[in-house]
Each structure stands twice: as C-alpha cells, then as structure tokens.
Amino acid sequence: MLSLKTILEHLEPEDIRCYTVWTKRTRSDKERLDLELVTYIKKNKTEDEFIREYYANNRNAYYRLKNKVVEDIGKSLVIQYWNKDEWIKLVNLVCIARLYHQKQLFNLSLHQLEKAEKLAFQLEDPQLIDWVLTEIIRMGSYLNIKQLTNSIAKRNENRKLLFKLHQIDDITALLENRIRTTQNLTNKDQSVIDWVNNYIDSLEDIQDDIKKSRTLRFKIAKIIVRVLVQEKKYADLENYLKENIDYLKSSGFFTQSNYKEFLELMIYLLNAMYYNKKYQECLTYSAHFLNALEQFDRLYYSNYIFYYYNNLINIYSAIDPLKALATIDEYEKKEKVNKDSYNYFYILIQRMMLKYQLNNLTNALKTITKIKVHPFYEKIDRELQIKLYVSELMLNCEDDEMFKVKNLLKDAPYWLRDIKKQKPQNHLHVVVNIIQSIAEKQSKSKGLVKSLLSLTSQEIGIDENFISISLWAKRLLQKIS
Questions:
Q1: 20-67, pLDDT tens digit by residue?
Q2: Are 250 and 242 in contact (CB under 8 A)?
Q3: Which pLDDT tens digit goes with each residue over 415-436?
Q4: Where are the alpha helices (DSSP H) in 81-105?
Q5: Dihedral sign of CA atoms 316, 317, 322, 328 in order
Q6: pTM assigned to the model
Q7: CA 81, CA 14: separation in Å to the nearest integer?
Q8: What is residue 380's DSSP assignment?
Q9: Distance, CA of 265 to CA of 247 (rounded, Å)
Q10: How far is the C-alpha of 394 from the C-alpha of 409, rounded, in Å?
Q11: CA 414/CA 354 separation, integer angstroms
Q12: H or E stretch covering 409
C-alpha cells in the first residue's frame, strides 16, 4: 500500500516548504485537509487517527485525498528541482515540446527540443541523446532537409555507442547476478578481483574494445567495491580503488555529468584507508576530496561535505580526540547543520563516543539522551539501536548509576534476542551479561573478572560498538580491583 509517511520521511524540510507554498498557490480554500493530513503525519500521528477525525464514515474520500496529496508532492518536487537536476530539466524540456507540438506551435516545440539536445550532449548520455534526436526526427515535415539529415546522422552515430553501452549493461547485469547467486566465488588463492577479470575474459562474442572500455571498467569497479566492503577486505579495497581512480581520472573519464560517481569512489577510498589505520595518508586524500568538492562551482558540495568532515572526525578520533570534537564544532557552525537531519543525528553519536574517550561520562550520557529523542532514532536500523542500547548500559554502569542500569536491564531479554539474531555469541551479548552480574552485586566474582579480562585481550573490531568495549572493560577492571 502507498505509504504517505514513508514519502514524507524522505523529504527534506525545504521540500515540504516548497510543497506547502506550491499547493497554497493553486488553491486558496480556508479549510485545507490536504495540508492538515501532511501536518498529522509529520507529527507522527497515524492515518487511522486522521480518518477517525475527518473521514469516519467515508474512507474512500480519504484515499482520494491521500492520492491527491501524493500527486501534488510529486508535482511540487518536479518544479522545485527543475533547474537543480539536469536530467529532470531535460525531461521537462521534451514534455514542453510535446505540449507545444499538440498545440501546433511547431517552432516553439523545435526550440525546446534543440535546448534538450544540447543538454543531452552535455550530459554525455547516449540514451537521452537517442530519445531527443528521435523526437526531433519525428518533426521531419517541419524541418529543413539539412536539419533532418544532420539529426539522422547524429542518431545513427550515437546508436553505435548506445549498442556498446547496452552490451556493457548486459555484462554487468550478468556479473552481478552471478556474484549474488554463487557461493564461495573464489578459492583461497584467488582474489575476487582476479575472479571478475577471468569471468570477463571468458565471455564470448564480446569485442575487445568493449572488454577494455573505461565505462565497463568503471561499472565493474562499483561491483567489486561492494563485494570487498561486504567482505571487509579493506586492504584490497584501498589498493584497487587507488589504481582505478587514478586510471579513470587521468584518462578523462569523469565529467560534470558523472562527477558524483568519482566522489563516491573517493569516499569508499577514504573509509578504506581509515579502516587500514593509514591516518596521515588519509588526511592527505581528505584534502584532495575537499578540493574535488569545489569543482563545477560547488555543484556537489552540499551533498558530500558531510563525508569530508565525517572522515576527519573518524581520523582525529583515533589520533587526537580533542581535535575531533573541534572538527565537529567547526562542521556544525560552518555548514549550519539542520538539527533534525540524519547528519546531525550521526554527529551526536560521534560526539557521545568522543566524550567517552575523554572520560567525560556525564556529557556522554547527556548526548545519548539527545540521540534517543532525535527524530531519526526510530528510523535507524535495528543493529544501530542495539548498539545504542548497549552503549547506554555501559555508560551508566561505569558511572555507577545502578538505578538506571536496572531500569534498562528490564528490557534486556528483548534486546538480547535481537543481539543473537544479529550475530550469535558476539561481544555485545557478553557485555550485557557482565552488566547483569554487576547489577546483581557479583562485581568481584571470578567469572566476571575472567569475562572482563577476555574483552581487554581481544582485538574487537572498531565497528563492533559505539563505545569501545575493550576500553570499557579495562576501566571496569581498574574499579573493581
């Protein structure tokens, strides 16, 4: 069923504001049930509550209203992003040309198509180019012969490239399907990169220029990156990305139309270098990433600046926690972060982690309270909620807030069930058991000390929990010894 709540959750505050302004301009009624419905949903009220208040005896009328709201949101988004997204702009130009053609305003129709053609070539998108040129050729009787023959020639040349791209899409689709459905892709002596390259080489009836094309290499790179991230092979990921980014960039593959793809590969590289603990080199690449965000009049700056600061915060968290906090403050002030956004929610988590690193338990606990009341808390996946629950337990336990610990432990069976589902017998499960023992005043038992010692001696992954489990265990051992 169509979920208005889901749509509204994924809209930015500016999107909602533009929708409200747009819909008020099209209708001036005093009683606006469409706007009232949006307000209801934004306040986390249910559709059933709205129906009971306004449409108790006529659910069909409510569904008509709901569909109208969804439709109007779509229209307002198209208008709002008309000049913010080149693809949307091009589609709209073709739509306007169609409308002018229907009204027999052929010169105006052709003028819109010529603008769309210019934009399609700027975007370097063969499928869009083919679509626009086809629309122009359909106006053949209103073109002079030179215009018509030029358009036909351009479309024929473009279709050669389009055919190659379709072959590339076929290869990558088959490759992704094979990866998804095949278990144990590689043997112990073969990397996933070699496996993919061997698979491509084995394909028959595919010309060598397609197998060696930059476009295919780029699309395969995105597939391999996903596999390496999933398998947490960060050393392989770093080396592979460095090689491919350098090659594609030096060969002029990245243009304005696909520059965000370059930025996303850079983000993967920065994350891989951080996981590989190459902090100083990662800082150098972070500076390159910031320079990249300045390109094309900062076209992608607002979309990706968070990842730049997030990378800096991660690095400084490992080598200089005070500088990491200063970086958070800089980001919030300089970029004017929306406090209802996911970015701010994630920043709160990082702030809580840093406060703990600096042994500021009081502020860490205050921050975790802000996290739990943030609008995005209910939207994050279950694994993150589990980590936050365990982190809150750990903080209160270390701060000797046993009343709060016991209250949190009332929900322990509920959380432990989900922890086991996520990863049976993981460290989080051990931590909760330790805290339960402490709450039951068994803080000096041999079993408890043994469990804490095991946590301090193990190499626990940096993504295991928000609060360092080994650091927490060491501090607890010091307190009970």
A1: 888 888 666 667 888 888 888 888 788 888 888 888 888 899 989 999
A2: no
A3: 877 776 666 457 888 888 889 8
A4: 86-102
A5: positive
A6: 0.73
A7: 11
A8: S
A9: 13
A10: 11
A11: 28
A12: helix 402-409
